[in-house]
Write a structure and sequence with these properties.
The chain contains nine helices and eleven strands. With about 300 residues, it is α+β, with helices and mostly antiparallel strands.
């Protein structure tokens, strides 16, 4: 069986009736809503869905349609960068499908959004048609406000849809491997400290491999907001250790961390092995996993 995950981000985290409508729209037959989270300061909601590829693509299209009808980027404000009402739609291979096939699905979805909803669409990561558009931050540079002014320029022409920006902005669609969205709060209200730490740890500034980071102020507290785009290269526990070191050098401490969406079992096992000083911690040493594997073996079925 083929299965993909999608983690669409919507530029609304304050009006729960709008987020509820988007969540309802995305749950077309065969689509499973695994998790949802909303944040007031970011003014952003993230949904995690999974299912058979065609079903997920249909659910995503319906969610983009509702978001375009209900979110006005001319009024929307939040600390998180955004290009559109549906800001970014990544497709992630989970089972029986590879990244290249997900890129084909992303392009198909992007074209349908452009053709049927009349929204500009940019392709990124594995679905990108231009090398300069692989990186999400580069596609989103200047956010909605700059895109309104620059979409007519050759370098800002969308991959699909019109070269005009309406109230719903543009949609960024792509395919990528699994990433972990992970934030760390500092015991400080000084966003400048979070920005300094983010600069120290992100790969683009010479920091940790496969780490993207921003420094923000959320609920009056400094936050290092991160995407760990390859958790096997740089796992969450390694990031936390470096942030703790950087924070102490600035005279501040970590308060807590925050997980956005879901994370893979392997990341948890790696963190547990590190904390327990185990050379390794294979999944079958966890009792619940061992029981599930034994039941699958006995029934002749494999679910993972």
């Amino acid at each position: 069986m083929q299965m993909i995950e999608a983690v669409p981000n919507f530029s609304e985290g304050r009006r729960m009736e709008v987020v509820d409508a988007i969540a309802a729209a995305i749950q077309t037959p065969g689509v499973h809503l695994l998790h949802r989270t909303s944040d007031w300061d970011h003014n952003r909601s993230v949904l995690t869905v999974a299912g058979e590829p065609d079903a997920v693509v249909e659910g995503l299209f319906q969610a983009v349609r509702v978001a375009a009808d209900r979110i006005d980027l001319r009024q929307q404000r939040g600390v998180h960068p955004r290009l559109g009402a549906t800001d970014v739609v990544p497709l992630v291979p989970i089972q029986g499908i590879d990244l290249a096939a997900c890129a084909v699905l992303a392009r198909r979805l992007g074209q349908r959004i452009g053709d049927e909803l009349g929204l500009p669409v940019y392709l990124y990561e594995a679905a990108a048609t231009r090398p300069e558009r692989r990186n999400l931050a580069d596609v989103r540079a200047g956010e909605y406000e700059r895109l309104v002014e620059e979409i007519h320029l050759p370098q800002r022409q969308p991959d699909f849809g019109p070269t005009v920006v309406g109230s719903a902005g543009a949609v960024i669609v792509g395919a990528r491997p699994f990433l972990i969205a992970f934030n760390v709060f500092l015991k400080s209200s000084d966003a400048a400290l979070a920005k300094r730490i983010a600069r120290a740890i992100r790969e683009s500034s010479g920091g940790l491999p496969a780490v993207k980071a921003l420094g923000l102020l959320v609920d009056g507290q400094a936050q290092v907001s991160m995407n760990l785009v390859d958790f096997q290269s740089t796992p969450p526990h390694a990031v936390v250790a470096v942030i703790e070191r950087e924070a102490r050098s600035l005279g501040v401490e970590i308060d807590r961390s925050e997980l956005i969406g879901l994370l893979p079992q392997a990341a948890l096992l790696a963190a547990a092995a590190h904390a327990l000083r185990l050379p390794e911690l294979p999944a079958d040493r966890v009792v619940e996993i061992a029981i599930r594997q034994a039941m699958e073996l006995k029934s002749g079925r494999r679910f993972s």
